[in-house]
Amino acid sequence: MKHIVSGIQPTGSLNIGTYLGSIKNFVRLQEAYKDHHFLIFIADLHAITIPRDRAELRKSIKEVAALYLACGLKTDNLSLFIQSEIEAHSQMSYLLQCFTYMGELERMTQFKEKAQRQEKGVTSSLFTYPALMAGDILLYDAEYVPVGDDQKQHLELTRDLAIRVNNRYGDFFTVPKPLIPKVGARIMSLTEPTKKMSKSDDNIKSRILLLDDDNIIRKRIMSAVTDTDGQIRFDPNNKPGISNLLSILSAITNESIETLVNTYKDTDYKTFKEVVAEAVVKELKPIKEKYHEVIKSGEVDTILDQGKAHAERIARKKIAKFNHKIGLGRKQK
Fold first, then answer.
1. Is 265 annotated as catalytic?
2. How many domains does the chain have?
3. Residue 176 sits in the same domain as residue 52
4. Residue 317 a catalytic site member
5. What pLDDT, on the 0 to 100 scale, is given for residue 267?
6. Is 59 an active-site residue?
7. Could you report the per-residue pLDDT of 135-171, keeping only the tens digit for each?
8. Are residues 278 and 173 in the same domain?
9. Domain range spanning residue 98?
10. Is 196 part of any domain?
11. Three-state helix/strand/coil letters over the chain
């Protein structure tokens, strides 16, 4: 069985950037790749590269799992699990660090950005977490990995590590290929549209969470930063705010940005924002309803247990083979 692997950190409630850029795409991919098995995990090991409140972290883990299901992921060809519950993820991370060069990690732009924001107390795990990410993928011999533009660098490192190990020990890892959505791959902040929308942004007006109240959604879209020329066109460099709203609307409606520009080119910004706001409200309403249904039913734990059992079988075998390939432990009889 071929695998598609991906994970999302449980660092607060999910926002529409994650939904439109990742989760909605997962739902489409499940339909397009019915012959593949999806291994989707809650990346809690990645979440602790910076300090987290333990109660909030555990709450977020459950919430993210429920939101995955509420957004439409089917369990037919899916194993949904929590990363830290599979010990092989930590083990594979260390083993791959032994094949990763300092220069490769120093070039990672996400580390540079996060380290600059944090300023002090930067952990070594924040520096080495691309090796953990590579382990998440290579552990399951993923054929494809759905990624946004900001994750392509990490996937390239993963591919390099797979090739490096294969060159040394013979074909062992599958070299993964990226799956990058054409629309909605990078939804930007509503307050600073040159930056990616982030659930960790200090300004809550910068994002829309999947569980936000309808009126909050409307207010944040209506207050989204735009420009003063009054023209609706897609120009991320000169008109990042309007371009971001067009990307959001395109990802929701599945209409091309070119079509949307032709439709709304003579519309004023206020009216256009109202259109986007109502589209977001309509898109998120069934997700919120399904989320509360899933949380109350208790099925999240059952699905996570099933996902853990399936992922653990695969991961345990792979890590044992890798240990043996490297020469660790006693020779198998």
1. no
2. 2
3. yes
4. no
5. 94
6. no
7. 999 999 999 998 876 678 889 999 999 999 999 999 9
8. no
9. 2-180+298-326
10. no
11. CEEEEEEECCCCCCEHHHHHHHHHHHHHHHHHCCCEEEEEEECHHHHCCCCCCHHHHHHHHHHHHHHHHHCCCCCCCEEEEEHHHCCHHHHHHHHHHCCCCHHHHHCCHHHHHHHHHHCCCCCHHHHHHHHHHHHHHHCCCEEEEECCHHHHHHHHHHHHHHHHHHHHHCCCCCCCEEECCCCCCCCECCCCCCCECCCCCCCHHHCCECCCCHHHHHHHHHCCCCCCCCCCCCECCCEHHHHHHHHHHHHHHCCCHHHHHHHHCCCCHHHHHHHHHHHHHHHHHHHHHHHHHHHHHCHHHHHHHHHHHHHHHHHHHHHHHHHHHHCCCCCCC
